[in-house]
Design brief:
By secondary structure, the chain is mainly α. 60% of the residues lie in helices and 5% in strands.
Amino acid sequence: MDITQSPSGLVIDKTTILSLLATVIILLVAYISSLRLLSPTINPKLRILFIWHAFDALIHFILEGSFLYNCFFTYITLPIPSSTNDYPHPASLVASPGAVHFLGYTDRLYGSRHGDSFMTRLWMEYAKADHRWGDADLTVVSLELLTVLVAGPLAVYVCGLIRRRDETRLWFWGSVLATAELYGGEDFIRFHSWRED
């Protein structure tokens, strides 16, 4: 993997470039969707709101959805020592900080740390700042379930309200979503995670 390190410690590698490119592509998809789905005469403020909410929904579904996929379907099987008849204590099997025996499997560890796809590498970059994103941390999984299953569909609904020009419902549901995004658990977990460490 090609790595270029600047004096500031910034590392720009293939995963970083592909991640930024994916984000730009998602933004372009949101913009093109606004051109195809909205009237050319729509108020520019509503077009910007549509682009923002379409981008938000796509980020929730694609990027954060990939985190959940890794938490539910990417795992390693732990070796069970055959030299003893006793089953080892689960704490002795934990291979990384924050790893838990997720979904009732005591012989598996789930999370991006255990995969090798582009999306697992993307989440491992994120895990460099907060190790919980590399494993199936129960707090992170529960918050991501909310964002993928509630905030994502709500953002799509807001886009539909903009398209139909239903401004009464738009301002209510747009405010609900904005408040959830602003004060949601995501920001809490990201900005207050230092208390855990």
